[in-house]
Automatic annotation (TrEMBL), chain A:
Organism: Marinitenerispora sediminis
Gene name as annotated: pyrB
Name used for this protein in its record: Aspartate carbamoyltransferase
GO molecular function, one term: amino acid binding
SUPFAM superfamilies: Aspartate/ornithine carbamoyltransferase (SSF53671)
Residues at which L-aspartate binds: 82, 165, 219
EC class of the enzyme, as a word: transferase
Pathway noted in the entry: Pyrimidine metabolism; UMP biosynthesis via de novo pathway; (S)-dihydroorotate from bicarbonate: step 2/3
Chain positions recorded as carbamoyl phosphate binding sites: 54-55, 104, 132, 135, 260-261
Catalysed reactions listed for this entry: carbamoyl phosphate + L-aspartate = N-carbamoyl-L-aspartate + phosphate + H(+)
Any one cellular-component term (Gene Ontology): cytosol
TrEMBL record, chain B:
Keywords: Glycosyltransferase, Transcription, Transcription regulation, Transferase
Homology family: Belongs to the purine/pyrimidine phosphoribosyltransferase family. PyrR subfamily.
Lineage: Bacteria, Bacillati, Actinomycetota, Actinomycetes, Streptosporangiales
Task of the protein: Regulates the transcription of the pyrimidine nucleotide (pyr) operon in response to exogenous pyrimidines.
Signal peptide: none
Domain of life per record: Bacteria
Molecular-function annotations in GO: uracil phosphoribosyltransferase activity
Native species: Marinitenerispora sediminis
Protein name per its UniProtKB record: Bifunctional protein PyrR
Motif PRPP-binding positions after renumbering to this chain: 123-135
UniProt cross-references to Pfam families, sorted A to Z: Pribosyltran
UniProt domain Phosphoribosyltransferase: residue ranges: 30-176
Amino acid sequence: MRHLLSAGDLSRDEATLVLDTARELAQVSSRSVKKLPTLRGRTVVNLFYEDSTRTRISFEAAAKRMSADVINFSAKGSSVSKGESLKDTALTLQAMGADGVVIRHSASGAARRLAGWVDGAVLNAGDGTHEHPTQALLDAYTMRERMGRLEGLRVAIVGDIRHSRVARSNVLLLHTLGAEVTLVAPPTLLPVSVGTWPCAVSYDLDEVLPKSDVVMMLRVQAERMRAAFFPTAREYSRRYGLDRDRFARLHDDAIVMHPGPMIRGMEISAEVADSPRSTITEQVANGVSVRMAVLYLLLGGSESAIGNGN
Amino acid sequence: MHARKHAEGGSTSSTAAGPPSRADLGDARAVLEGPEINRALTRIAHEVLERTKGATDITLLGIPTRGVPLARRLAGRITQVEGRAIPWGSLDITMYRDDLRLAPARALGRTEIPAEGVDGRVVVLVDDVLFSGRSVRAALDALNDIGRPRAVQLATLVDRGHRQLPIRADYVGKNLPTSVRETVTVLVEELDGRDAVLLGPARPRAGRAGSAEEEES
């Protein structure tokens, strides 16, 4: 059984297979019976050590639409608050016969550690500041649906790149799928290793905007910050926030994305967030289809159809 | 399970690059050629009209991959005779197959239900080869999740026998007596460049092709 730990593990064919499968599965959401029998008798555990609204609900809905049994585990109110380690929790799940484990954890690399301890497939639903591969897949899916292609698409990812697992997974996946990514952030909010990533880097949002087909805004993750990275929120917002004036500088077909949760007035103005060219709610709907596709491809057959590279 | 039929028909390469080619046919022998297939489809079209008393509320649903072009052609022929459009579409059965866990997860085919839906209509499922009957069972389950047809009928270009379920076809292009281990391959102009039904020699029981049969015994 293989896993989905990093967006970088997917080959171009595998990533395309996930997106094509998701496209077919999206139809299920509009039927009268919103359920497929495919994962009947399989158990998926949602193991969430970190707060999450969208991702946890999305994985739960996806697994239930595929008829899997879902067990939700959150660190609050479990033996974790009594001091149980990740490994012991993993062994408990193993003993209960989980076929798939969806893990969200504040420590980078937690998903990969877990993959070494359990037999089931591990799906990384966000590990610290490292990766969030299903978010990247649903973002790529949303871009492909809206723009009709990914090859050659110019994508700007703007904001707190340093603390963002979404940015890293998107850079890796979009590069695999042939899009051109430019990261835009103040120098203090870029990771040290950014020079090795397959993308361009800019400090100047106004220069990048007119040359972009997709602008993805990221939240400033204050909860992960243990130092001052910019003088004031207001100054950050003025230089890196997407407001009405900047929005007007985008070309007419360009779209605005945000993985959520967003802080209106900080990185994105309410007016931009609610515009018809913003895909924020579409991204949430697409997330269910993409996660159904990933669950199907990992758990549906005798062996996984994706992620065999790790 | 379906020796040749689905060993290739639903395999993993079909999404991005279009349907899989059926080039590697070795010493298979053609038992039906283009003109005979055309005549068989024309006859089925007339039988459908007759049996459904004018086909006023029928919907044709092809089972991917090769049932779909056959459904389209049948719809075209009925339209020629009756002078009005017959709704047709495709119904993917991958998620409903009973052998999903015997092979790696497969790429999905397309499901396209015509705007009329299936509720209250006579749905004619169209497949290229009827063998064990398991594909049809899966198709009935898939259909059940989409709506409630007034009746469901089955049309197949080739019935090669060896049913493993109590399923029969209402319309058959040709009954083809085979041994279980022979392979029957249907080629269609739209996907393969020519129309033909090929009967291949018995193959050794390698890989997954025979696993369902072994499980049967």
